[in-house]
Amino acid sequence: MANTNVKRVKTSELELKDRLVAIKRVTKVTKGGRHFSFAAIVVVGDENGVVGYGLGKANEVTTAISKGVEDAKKNLVKVPVLNGTIPHEQEFKFGGAKVFMKPAAPGTGVKAGGAMRAVFESVGIRNVLAKSRGSSNPHNLVKATVAALSEMRDAYTVAGLRGIPMSKVFNG
């Protein structure tokens, strides 16, 4: 499932906003008793076509979130956004999570579940219809959503790859 056309983005010139998708408490049982720590999955984006996700683990919630933000900044990808929606329908599977998304008319809003909604809002998509099937594990849902978005191509990219003018993309 490795994507070859993923566009990496530098973080220095971006103003990123972070969203906490999920946080869970994990327990390690030792002979001295239970040891609690936290794992946080965070999505960052500039609300203008750039998004990334990260996982942070630490003994305190705030430290786990900040580690997740730092990890997310290392995994930024560029996503085509056309008039506040996605360019075409897309399906993707990651682990047990399956996601389906399709473009929506202006004014529709983000019709998506929790983990997917955070990704769409971070990337700047305002109108989309999305459905998740299979596992509702937030880690896999976020990974599937970001991977599906990073595989999207707009008409200008398709025209450039085919070496034809933009007018022939739709008229074949």
From TrEMBL:
Signal peptide: none annotated. NCBIfam families: rpsE_bact (TIGR01021). With S4 and S12 plays an important role in translational accuracy. Located at the back of the 30S subunit body where it stabilizes the conformation of the head with respect to the body. Belongs to the universal ribosomal protein uS5 family. It comes from Candidatus Merdivivens faecigallinarum. The N-terminal domain interacts with the head of the 30S subunit; the C-terminal domain interacts with the body and contacts protein S4. The interaction surface between S4 and S5 is involved in control of translational fidelity. GO terms for cellular component: cytoplasm; small ribosomal subunit. Transmembrane segments: none annotated. GO terms for biological process: ribosome biogenesis; translation. Keywords: Ribonucleoprotein, Ribosomal protein, RNA-binding, rRNA-binding. Residues 16-79 form the S5 DRBM domain. This is Small ribosomal subunit protein uS5. It comes from the Bacteria. GO terms for molecular function: rRNA binding; structural constituent of ribosome. The gene is rpsE. Part of the 30S ribosomal subunit. Contacts proteins S4 and S8.
